[in-house]
Structure formats: structure tokens, C-alpha cells
Amino acid sequence: MEWLYLVIGIAVVAVVVVLGGIGLVRGRGREAGPVEAPRATPTDVLAPPEAGIEGVLEPEAPEAPDVVAAPTLERPERPASRLVRLRQRLAGSGTLGRGLLGLLSREQLDEDTWEAIEDLLLGADIGVQPTHELVERLRTRLRVEGGVAADARTVLREELINLVDPSMDRSLHVSGADGNPGVVLVVGVNGTGKTTTVGKIARILVAEERTVLLAAADTFRAAAADQLSTWGERVGVEVVRGPEAGDPASVAFDAVKQGVDRGIDTVVVDTAGRLQNKQGLMDELGKVKRVIEKQSPVTEVLLVLDATTGQNGLIQAKVFAEVVDVTGIALTKLDGSAKGGIVVAVQRQLGVPVKLVGLGEGPDDLAPFDAAAFVDALLS
Hints:
Blueprint (H helix, E strand, L loop, with lengths): L1 H30 L47 H12 L4 H10 L6 H13 L4 H18 L3 H16 L17 E6 L6 H14 L4 E5 L7 H12 L2 E4 L6 H15 L3 E5 L7 H15 L7 E7 L4 H13 L4 E5 L9 H9 L3 E5 L7 E3 L2 H9 L1
Parallel strand pairs: 1-4, 1-5, 2-3, 2-4, 5-6, 6-7
Antiparallel strand pairs: 7-8
């Protein structure tokens, strides 16, 4: 029996040893800390972009900085070539000239014909007094010189040119004295194309290689300053502007002061054109002119009129003539829809010349007025 007990004892010891080894192994596992991640194999390494391995993200290229291109300045058309286009634009649209030639070319000029000529002239807004003068001169000359069609055209051309009055000084006074800039004050009713005309005048002056500064003194029309700035940017002309609904005289003063300090050739001032309150308009424009002349004299006051308004334009002209000393007229929209006689009527009404005429919506469709070219276009 002793050997049996010995075998059992050995077995028990063996079991204890085995169980103890297992516990030791477990204990060591708890003390060992985190298990290291397996090392990456060569195939796990990201290849460079040029390796072309599918699915690999390439690094983003840095964004290129925004490059703002310098604006390309326009080159305005010179006044000489504008006169050529003046003839071309008016040619064929002058119903007045063609109508007069048709009547004067009749074999017999009776009283009915002369009445028809008077009606045609009055309908073209030439005015009563200028119409009577022209008819009398035509009757006298054609009676004395004969009524041949070719002669009738020559006589009509000469008399129309005399009526438009080529002796008037139509030059723009855009230069100042004693080193001061010329100051052009542009006035007119809103809606006549006043601000657009200011922009087009700037283009004429730039084409003559003059330095120009614009003053946005129409502070009561919200879009006026922005509109003027757009015109200036196209030809590299700066615009002096103030706060909306600010003092127009202050803007004009600042612009002319800058013109004096910087040696600018010409300062062109856009003004408000409200006619709801005549007295208020007179006070405002009078103040603008007085304030400007503390810096430099105003050398030109241009009144902008819409040629298509006819007699209404004459009423506007009278109001502005009472406010400021108008020295010249810029007649806009003088195309086929306008009555050409307004040129004669407004000159007679104000005693000042038409200096500029606008013939369309193009940026260079503003030309110096020439009496002979105007009449030739009407008769073509």
C-alpha cells in the first residue's frame, strides 16, 4: 500500500506544479503592459505620388494668389473724326432739309407753297421770329436770283447757315489763367443726359491729352456719383465725391482745390438738376458757383438740353439762365427723332451758342457743333 500512497503524492505535486506555472504565466502577462503593434511591412509604406499606386492621396498644391489685372484704359476718339461721324449720323435723318428742298424746287412758288414752308419750319421748333426772317430772305433771294432747283438748294444752305449763326464762338473754355485749372460747370435737368454728358466731355478732353478731374456734385441722385465714377475709370480720370445727400458745394470746392494743388488742366463739375423748387435750385447752384470761385474762376457753364423735348427744353433753358450765366449749350439726342430747329431757337432764346451735340448712346457720340456741317447734314 505504501507504493500506492507514493504514486498519489507524486500526482498531486505534479498537478500543483502545473497549476502554479499557468498562474505565473498569467501574472506576467498582466504586468507586461501594452503589446507593441506589429512592425509595418514594406508594402504598408505610402509610396510617393510619382509611384502611381492606386488609392494613394497626393498632397494638395498650394493655391495661387489672386492676381488683379490692371484695367485697360480706353482711347477716346479725337474731335476731328467726330465731326465726320456727325455728318454721317445726321445725313438722311434731316426731314426738315429734304422737306424744304422739295417745296422750294417747285416750278411755281405761290402763297400756298410759302405757307407750307412756314408750317414746316414752325413744326421743326425753329420759332416764330426766326421762321419769318428765313422765309422773307428766301422769298427775296429766289425772286431776284431765280427759282431753279440747283440755285434753290444753294440759297437755302446759305440762309440756314446764317440762321444758325456761324459767327458765334463755339470753343470750349477749358483752360484757366495764372496756372489755375479751367472749371466747367455742367447744369441741366435730371433726365437730359447731364451726367453722361460730363463723362463724355471728360473723354473729349482726354483725347486732347489734357489732365482732367471730375466732381460728383449731384449728391441728391444716388446713382450719379457711381455713374460718373464708371465713366472716369474707363479713361483713367479721377472722381471727387462726397456722402450721399451731402453738400454739393463742398464736393465742388474740394475738387477744384485738388485741381489747383495738383496742377490739373480742367475740372468738370456735375450738378443737381431738380426743378421741383425753382428758388431752391437757384440758391443751390448759385452757392456752388460762388464756393468754386473761392479757389478758381468758372471758365464755362454748359447747359445740357434734350433735343427731343422741343419747346419744353426752351422753358428749362430760361430757368437755368436765371440761375447761372450759361455760356454754352450741349444738345443731346440730336438724331433722327429730334427737331433740328431747336438749335436755332435755343440760341435765339439765350443768346449763347450750341457748342456740343450728342448723336447717340456711344461713349464718343458727343461732338463739337459746326454750323456748316450741321446744315449740310440736314440737306443731304
